[in-house]
Amino acid sequence: MPLGTIDRRPPPFFRQGPSALSKLLFFSALSLFLMVADTRFHITQPVRAALATALYPVQWLALQPVQAAKKGSDYFTSLSQAESNSEAASRKLALQSLRAGRVEQLTLENNRLRKLLGLREQLATPVLTAEVLYDAADPYTRKVIIDKGLLQGVEPGSPVLDELGVLGQVTRVHPLVSEVTLVIDRDLAIPVLNVRTGVRSVAFGDPSSSGSGMELRFMGSNSDVQQGDLLTTSGVDGVYPPGLPVATVSRIERRAESTFAKIYCAPLALVKGARHVIVARPVADQIPQRPGAAVSEVRAKKGAAK
Q1: What is the distance, to the nearest Å, from the Cα of residue 186 to the centroid of all Cα atoms in its chain?
Q2: Taking the alpha carbons of 236, 239, 242, 246 in that order, is the dihedral positive or negative?
Q3: Which of 48, 168, 213, 278 has the greatest number of beta carbons closer than 10 A?
Q4: What is the pTM of this model?
Q5: Under CATH, what is the fold of the domain 127-286?
């Protein structure tokens, strides 16, 4: 082969092309040009939009595992939070229910006390307020224990009233507490007056097994008594002031073979739920002595002095 025909160029593997410095300067200038052009003319905005649209499916697929893990974590967190919120709501509801019950009870008690104060102002006799502590232990009687006794001035035989009417009578007095026999006790009798007819009679505690009512005894079968008649204290016994509500007639039984009618009454006082009561002095203690008795007493004192 002649020497003139030999190719003296380096093989392609060893070709260097432009130098590294030339490439750096070129691409630096291109970058600077593109940044200035994009800032002034926004020429790369369509390219960005196209690339974002093309890459969205890839991004969506890549984010699915992350989203699934996040949703699972949020589910368990939400479930735990929901359980905690439910328990907190249940506790709050129970507390509010308890408070509502207390408010209702206090409102009812406040109304009863207001009525009791109104009844206290109507009575001309000295009165003493008391609170019912508990029922008597004897199951065959209808009695309660109040928190006032001999030291507070309670006397045996004193009438006891609540805001609705006559509740009973003090039958036993201790230094600090007293025993009150309710109007529904079979051994208690109260002289009453029928407001509609003006007829006097005597009401006794109901002797039936329930023992929650009263009975108007010694009334003829042809007596003028109607269901719903109001019975008040007559005041002739020297214990109860006159005009205090006692009971209403609830049922009447007239039998041909009996001379007397069976008249059942419902007490107006809260015989099974009284809380606050008024203890009044017996009317007999406020009645002045008869002139003859007073003169006899003075003469007796003079004779003892001689």
Answers
A1: 35
A2: negative
A3: 168
A4: 0.58
A5: Thrombin, subunit H (2.40.10)
